[in-house]
Specification:
The chain is of the alpha+beta class and 170 residues long. Helix content is 17%, strand content 37%. It contains three helices and twelve strands. This is Pyridoxamine 5'-phosphate oxidase family protein.
């Protein structure tokens, strides 16, 4: 998402709060060490799992094994919510990303994503690119998904703010 429409929801913000800028929101997504993904099971129950996500080209990317609950859920319902932030109530920004998860299989994109994953934490997220998947020595094949946001919420803490970022109409 580039240059989204940004607005503050005054109902849930301090009177003197300013909206969290898109740049600040994007920095949270780029620098997050841990992100939580919520998918929906076929029977409608939610499933939440922690993972390492990568922000690249306006989308948040994550991986899952083909037999993991996330992959099973996404085969039925591609809509997800990804959340990240801080576990403090008085500082930082929490971010929520909503949108459909779409499989990434293009080799060039997977190669760029594999390079981006190597920059997370201490470099231990090392993937090789296989035929439409990531490969590694530990977990086997991993499906890669991209979530181009339909909505991003940023919750500023300290001076509390509730900011909404949505894509501009095409």
């Amino acid at each position: 998402m580039k240059d989204p429409i940004t607005s503050i929801d005054t109902r849930f913000s301090d009177p003197d709060a300013e909206p969290t800028s898109w740049q600040a929101t994007q920095e949270v997504l780029e620098n997050a060490q841990m992100t939580w993904v919520t998918t929906v099971r076929a029977d409608g129950r939610p499933h939440v799992a922690p993972l390492v996500a990568v922000w690249l080209d306006g989308a948040l990317h994550f991986t899952t094994g083909p037999d993991e609950q996330k992959a099973v859920n996404l085969a039925v319902n591609p809509n997800v919510v990804l959340t990240t932030g801080r576990d403090t109530w008085d500082e930082g920004v929490d971010v929520v990303v909503e949108g459909p998860a779409v499989r990434v299989t293009d080799r060039k994109t997977l190669e760029r994503l594999a390079a981006a994953w190597r920059t997370k934490w201490d470099g231990r997220w090392v993937y090789e690119v296989g035929d439409g998947v990531f490969l590694n020595d530990v977990a086997g094949p991993a499906l890669v998904f991209a979530v181009e946001p339909t909505k991003v919420l940023a919750f500023g803490k300290g001076t509390f703010s509730h900011t909404r970022h949505v894509p501009r109409p095409a």
